[in-house]
Amino acid sequence: MRTFNLKAIGLSLVAPAIAIVVSLLVTTLVIAAVGSSPSDFWSTMFEVPKPRSRIDIINQTGMIYIAAVAAAIGFRMGLFNIGLEGQYTLASYAAAAFAGGAYLSGFANVAVTLLIAIAVGAAWSGIAGVLRTTRGVSEVISTIMLNSIAITLVGYLLNRYGVHEGNTVRTTKIDLVTGFSPYEDRDGQIWTLTIIAVLVGVGFWLLLNKTRFGFDLRASGQSDSVAKASGVNPTRMIITAMALSGGIAGLIWMPALFGKASSFGLGTSFQAGLGFLGIAVALLGRNRPLGMLFGAVLFAFLSVKSNDLTFATDVSPSIVQITQGVAVLAVVIAYEVVRRWRAQLEQRAVGQDLVTATEAPA
Amino acid sequence: MRRLTKLSAVAAVAALALAGCGSSDSGGSDGGSKPAASKDVCKDAKGSGPKIGLAYDVGGRGDQSFNDSAYVGLKKAVTEFDGSCVEGEATDGEPESAREDRLRNMADAGANAIVGVGFAYSDSVNAVAPDYPDVNFAIVDGFDPDTKPNDNVAYLTFAANEGSYLVGVAAAEKSKSGTIGFVGGVHNDLIKGFEAGYVAGAKAAKPSIKVEVSYIQESDLKGFGDPAGGKAAATGEFDKGADVVYHASGASGSGVFDAAVEAGDGKWAIGVDSDQYLTATAAQKPHILTSALKRVDVATYDFIKTVNAGKPATSYTTYDLKNDGVGYSTAGGFIDDIKSDIDGYKAKIVSGDIKVPTKP
User: Do A120 and A218 sit in the same domain of this protein?
Assistant: First the structure.
């Protein structure tokens, strides 16, 4: 029994290992092909990060992880919420605008701001859920369109109601929540609200494995008809899952808002692109809480360290986007290959059992 | 479920790849000299003069836009003062901490003059500068985001509305239809300044002129890197009867030029920032009336010069018509007949008789 467990763990690690090796290989080949030095590249990337980079990696990991969980909720249900980007852009703006209004103070302001972020994100993705259930519009199409609408809407509102300063426009600044600084002050702080990532991760695991809703979600994701047969209402499931996914998406940028940014400004303080990163990380981590944590750390590490590339090498920092992209693609392929190989192993094992079973009485 | 995974994997990879392709710049500028990748001044320059750090905006070198313009200034300074340099480039969707990290890396590497290209560096320079009192910083299009002044930061701003005013005059005088157009990359305050100057100049030259205004994006910075969007916007304006269209849309401008080519003879486009006649294709050249110049290269060079001389520039420096930091180009010779008119307006702006608005 013990050996079987070891084997199962080994097998589950094979696919990610293959994916990482492949992505490293492809990156190396690309760098060599353009005439740069791969060894310079890897020695720079794998250098121990500076203190401030370590802090950046932790903070970025938190946000990417929240985004990944938001994507995973959809995936587990068989929904592709590609609209995380628009959901968290709109939610971040709404939250920053509310917090900047200073209607409340201290802890209450933070708490209500977070609730607003969740509500706006959920409402925006809920539109896609309602469209899907009432009109049969694929959520892939509707959320992409909602992304465009969201960023245009935010730009309009920001231009109209924001604080114009220099060449930029932003929401009113808020008081930051003091974070934890393990090194010198100038190296920055680990944002307090990065704790949201931990809560979201634990919550996701509990939801999936310990609740009726989680069971229904997984059932619906695996087979519509089985879910229906066991009494799941698909309409309600789709809308709830979309809203939940969008609600979590609304939280993505909150650690940065209260930790560092203090206001929302497009092209300046607001960090765009986390929604798409989250989708990639959810795929990389196979929608599992721990797998996605690993993926988020990897992506954050690559992004932060890529900044050092321009100093030690002549490789463009954009190269890490190739590494990230190949990792996602490779992990999907590797899992499929390993799954087939495992199925074969199982078939053979069952076949052998049958042979011994039939031979035994004789 | 597995089909969904495959579909989404492809989509996610495409999103990552496209993010890498997207280029945008917040300067609303295009053209200029494109340096060959092999001729990298920072690779070879090992002089003992000033050590310069140049932090590019998204798009980086090779954007034929204002990042390249900054590089031209850097190159001139490095050669002239026998200095050395390090470069860093912003990636799309990077966090604020990445910009700070880039500037700190440069300061830690010993740079004594650091230039952030684009207003996006305003906050990060403000955070980093106090930690490095011996290093001089400059931000192109930048500003001080708080009330505490920094005595080692120079803010290099441009009166882009003044240059735009002059090309507005040119557009109105050259227009036969009585309608002209403006295409902005992103509807932000920076580009609105271009629009305001252009419209004011056109109305001054011909009060009855009609100006069609459109923006490619409301807020998404990809409006600066979207030639197809630029073409669509400009074509729409030509269709509405405009015969001269001015763009302030960065790399999207090439689409505006293409639209002018397709609109046929007698339809003009006006370039921005650098003299775009010089970098245009042979087909586009006969349609490029003039360009509004924004000399990021001059600003970059001037700043390094002051650092080298031991009297580093600080606080705000405005590059305007008076000090030739903005202006218009005459390459192609299409506006030679109205040059004296334009210079008349220029003199009035320099003397203060004409106040050019900064907001539409």
Answer: yes
A27 plus A61 within the same structural domain: no
Looking at the structure, do residues A173 and A86 belong to the same domain, yes or no? Answer: yes
Q: Does residue A43 lie in a domain region?
A: no
Q: Are residues A145 and A277 in the same domain?
A: yes
CB A178 within 8 A of CB B246: no
Query: What pLDDT does residue B36 have?
Result: 39
A-proximal residues of B, 10-49, CB under 8 Å? 10-13, 15-17, 19-20, 26, 40, 43
**CB–CB contact A310 B13 (8 Å):** no
- Phi and psi, residue B268, nearest 5°: -120, 155
| Contact call for B8 and A310, based on CB within 8 A | no
Q: Domain check: are A305 and A322 in the same one?
A: no
Query: Which residues on B lie below 8 Å from A329 (Cβ)?
Result: 9-10, 13
Low-confidence ranges of chain A (pLDDT < 50): 1-2, 362
Mean pLDDT computed over every residue of chain A = 88
How far away is chain A from the Cα of B285, in angstroms, using its nearest Cα? 32
Give the pLDDT confidence of B318-353 residue by residue, as tens digits. 999 888 889 999 888 898 888 888 998 999 899 888
- How large is the ipTM? 0.84
Task: Give the strand order in the sheet containing B51-56.
Answer: B84-89, B51-56, B113-117, B136-140, B153-158, B315-319
Contacts with A318 from chain B: Cβ below 8 Å: 20, 91
CA A43 to chain centre: 27
Best mutation target among A168, A299, A301, A306 (most B Cβ atoms within 10 Å) is: A168
Q: Which of B121, B114, B193, B195 is nearest to B158 (CA)?
A: B193
Contact A260 B8 (CB under 8 A): no
Q: List, in sequence order, every residue forming a beta bridge with B186; answer none if it has no partner.
A: B217
> Which residue on chain B is closest to A89 by alpha carbon?
B220
Q: What is the CATH number of the domain that holds A168?
A: 1.10.3470
Which residues have C-beta within 8 Å of that of residue B229, sequence separation ≥ 6?
B216, B217, B223, B252, B255
How many separate domains does chain A show?
2
A41 lies in some domain: no
Which pTM does this prediction carry? 0.85
Residues A252 and A360 in one domain: no
Say how far apart CA A160 and CA B216 lie, in whole Å: 18
Instruction: Identify the closest residue of chain A to B106 by CA–CA distance.
Output: A311
**Minimum CA–CA partner of B215 in chain A:** A152
Q: Examine residue A44 and state whether it is found in any structural domain, yes or no.
A: no
Q: Give the distance from CA B27 to its chain's centroid.
A: 3
Can you list the domains of chain B with their CATH numbers?
A: 25-158+297-319 (3.40.50.2300), 160-293+330-351 (3.40.50.2300)
> Which structural domain, as residue segments, surrounds residue A333?
1-36+316-362
Select from B1, B6, B102 the Cβ nearest to the Cβ of A78: B1
Q: What are the structure tokens assigned to B314, written together?
A: 């600080």
Q: For position B89, what pLDDT does the model report? A: 83
**Could you write out the DSSP letters of every residue in B261-291?**
HHH-TT-EEEEEES-TTTTS-TTTGGGEEEE
> What is residue B316's three-state secondary structure?
strand
Q: Spell out which residues of chain B touch residue A322, defining contact as CB-CB under 8 Å.
A: 17, 20
CB contact under 8 A, A269 and B96: yes
> Is B219 close to A168, i.e. CB distance below 8 A?
no
| Smallest Cα distance from A353 to chain B, Å | 30
B59: left (phi over 0), alpha (psi -120 to 50) or beta: left
Asked if residue A63 belongs to a domain, the reply is yes
- Give the minimum alpha-carbon distance from B14 to chain A in angstroms, rounded to a whole number: 8
**Pair A324, A199 in one domain:** no
A98 & A228 share domain: yes
- CA-CA distance, A307 to A317, in Å (whole number)? 6
Q: Which neighbouring-strand residues pair with B178?
A: none
